[in-house]
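Board notes (copied after class):
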Amino acid sequence: MVVFHAGTAMKDGRPGEPRGRVLGVTAIGATLKDAIGRAYRAVDRIHWDGAYYRTDIGKKALARGNV
């Protein structure tokens, strides 16, 4: 699993207010379903006031059978 930082404006050389997406979480698994599960387990460990995340990532691919 890898967590990518993104969407934070720099202010005076330091990260400032977040703008849109702040992190991207990527995981690898034996199947798409496994990779999605690993990514969401990692996301469940990331917390701060006002944080939220999408819960539909990968659902279309799973529905099409692209596992």
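Comment from the instructor: The longest strand covers residues 14-18. The radius of gyration is 14 Å.
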